[in-house]
Amino acid sequence: MAPGDQCWLDIWLPAGDSLWVDDVVRGAFWAGEAWATAAASIGVVGAQVHTGGLARSPLADLVCFAGRGPGEVFAGEQKLTGISQRRTRDWVRLQTMAYRVWEPERLVEVLALTERRRTELSAELKDTVLPLGAPDVIADAVMGCLP
Question: CA–CA separation, 7 vs 57, rounded Å?
Fold first, then answer.
């Protein structure tokens, strides 16, 4: 992560809110739908919400953004939005993030890997993320799509 490379939007809900869902898997779907609608409004074609559970991949063991989580948004195989949840019985906080800039080589340079593995991993990660550009445009689009 680097300053300005991501657009973060955190959403906090109290228990009992009309958007509250007890199920951890389904609980982020509505936020993902807002991100997918917002992505379409700024020209992303085919944005889809992942409606399954956590789906790990070999790359996700090193780079969490390479996995698939409930409510996260993809265009084909490229991730647009990551979502994590922090829950108590009284509230939930959905932390959502989209990359504005995706330069995997900057990410892998801080991992304890050989130079050869860093080069390979950068190439493997190159097409896993679809960056969305200007943060104000993204944030305004998502805010306009939230229920």
Answer: 24
